Amino acid sequence: MPQYWISFRSLTHAQRAARFLEKSGITATVTRLPQGVSPKGCGYALIVRQRIHEALRLLGEARIPSGMVFEKTERGDFREVKL
Amino acid sequence: MIYLDSAATSLLKPSAVGYAMTEALRTMASPGRGGHAPAMFAAETVYRCRELAAELFHMDRPDHVVFTMNATHALNLAIASLARKGKRVVISGFEHNAVTRPLYALGCSVTPAGRQLFDQDDTIRAFQKELAGADFAVCTVVSNVFGYVLPVREISALCRKAGVPLILDASQAAGILDLDFDALGVEYMAMPGHKGLLGPQGTGILLCKEYADPLLFGGSGSASRLQTMPEDLPERLEAGTQNVCGIAGLMAGIDTVLSQTPASILRHEQTLLRLAIEELRDADCELFTNEGEQQVGVLSLRSHSIDCETLANRLSEHQICVRSGLHCAPLAHESAGTLETGTLRLSFSPYLREGELLDACGVLRRMLSAASS
């Protein structure tokens, strides 16, 4: 199953987004973003394994600001994806 | 001991507060300073506290709940975000030094509006008159000296109409009055964690409508390459390691307030207030009350024959804890005509029992009588 990482500018934004998605039945885990994919250093992400398109749509509708979306490959690399 | 100084600090806390703080001390690290379990556990606790505060104040944005050291810190943040030298600021006649001193330090021109104690109409009329041309306004929700509940709904409506940003000081109201931050439409609302919210000392909250400027600069746990503070709330205003133990305790305190509801806490305090008024009505002192109307569980009085500090000391010898003096609010005393004498203040909490208050009033009455004879 693909693993998507939605990046956020702050821990609190990631937490707010996680709560919001949980209420919609989408499991999302808050985690730190690897330095290599965190342009400003020390970013946060939500790991979403299901309904990624719906998750992004819901966050957009709720005006919860999110950043780039990455897919974590089986080798552990991060690849930006446009969804 | 009978504790009647909850307007300074609510000494009697729910047991859950101490438990939450101990748990935090044992199990939690710093939010945003690691992805390991203790850091994430701390982050979850801090966010949960934001959510509970947002729920209590009917606020849509938990991320706009900012943790501070106390209400003074929160007020300084709010005031510094709006104030510049020469700005004209309208304040109520019952503000605390936590409002007036920052305004003075920043060189603002301050206009007090509404000096009549327990006269909401006077307060409204005064704000209406003074708001034209003002840069912003600050108003306490409840006077810390007299328990006077100011008409903040009407004042916030006047401010919105005049396009004047409003800061509310909810230090004596948070946890006791039902305050709807979004409906009030104010710019900021500041409060301590250690009074009506039943949390520990060293905690405070600033609710922000939109934006605020930081007073402290430093680590925020995010966007670390930038040498400016993050734009986003709450991180923008929360530089440095947070008081996680305090916030955990505050979370438990707010949870208790939500369970008990501010309405029932207010009912209890007003029952106590009316009881104290009845017990002291014929005592040899001047009571500052509106017969319990537009007043929370705070009652000021002064003796005709004994200084309030001496009286407080004598009560303390009987294990009765009250506050005396100017209560860091000389403007409020000036408005009420008590600046030269100060007052003795009794203030109540959800955990004070009627029997305790009756005992304390009995001792106080006898002291007042002895002093006058």
Written overview of the protein:
Chain A is α+β, with helices and mostly antiparallel strands and 83 residues long. Chain A is built from two helices and five strands. Chain A starts with a strand and ends with a strand. With 373 residues, chain B is an alpha/beta fold. Chain B folds into two domains: 2-10 and 261-372, Aspartate Aminotransferase, domain 1; 15-260, Type I PLP-dependent aspartate aminotransferase-like (Major domain) (Aspartate Aminotransferase, domain 2, 3-Layer(aba) Sandwich), CATH 3.40.640.10. In chain B, 41% of the residues lie in helices and 15% in strands. Chain B has a seven-stranded mixed β-sheet, with helices on both faces. Chain B has a four-stranded antiparallel β-sheet with strand order 9-10-13-12, with helices on one face. In chain B, helix 7 links the parallel strand 6 (166-169) and strand 7. Chains A and B meet through helix 1 and strand 2 of A and helix 2 of B.
Brief summary:
The complex is a heterodimer of chains A (83) and B (373). In chain A, 28% of the residues lie in helices and 29% in strands.
Task: Give the SSE layout.
The complex is a heterodimer of chains A (83) and B (373).
Chain A: E1 3-8, H1 11-23, E2 28-32, E3 44-48, H2 52-61, E4 69-72, E5 78-81
Antiparallel strand pairs in A: 1-3, 1-4, 2-3, 4-5
Chain B: E1 2-3, H1 15-27, H2 37-56, E2 65-68, H3 71-82, E3 88-92, H4 97-105, E4 109-113, H5 120-130, E5 136-140, H6 152-162, E6 166-169, H7 181-184, E7 188-192, E8 204-208, H8 244-260, H9 262-280, E9 285-288, E10 298-303, H10 308-317, E11 320-321, E12 323-325, H11 330-336, E13 343-347, H12 354-372
Parallel strand pairs in B: 1-11, 3-4, 3-5, 5-6, 6-7
Antiparallel strand pairs in B: 2-8, 7-8, 9-10, 10-13, 12-13
Helix pairs in contact in B: 1-8, 2-8, 3-4, 5-6, 9-12
The CATH architecture of the largest domain in chain B can be named as 3-Layer(aba) Sandwich
Order of helices and strands of chain A: EHEEHEE
Specify the biggest β-sheet of chain A: 5 strands, antiparallel
Q: What is the percentage of strand-forming residues of chain A?
A: 25-35%
- Main sheet overview of chain B: 7 strands, mixed
Query: Percentage of helical residues of chain A?
Result: 25-40%
Helix content of chain B: 40-55%
Q: Which topology of chain A does CATH recognise? A: Alpha-Beta Plaits
The shape of chain A is globular
- Give the domain tally of chain A: 1
- The assembly state of the depicted protein chains is heterodimer
Question: Could you name the ranges of chain A where pLDDT drops below 50 across 5 or more consecutive residues?
Answer: none
Distance between the termini of chain A: 16 Å
Overall number of structural domains of chain B: 2
Q: How many beta-strand runs of chain A?
A: 5
Shape of chain B: globular
Radius of gyration of chain A: 12 Å
Q: How is the largest sheet of chain A built, in terms of strand order?
A: 2-3-1-4-5
Order of helices and strands of chain B: EHHEHEHEHEHEHEEHHEEHEEHEH
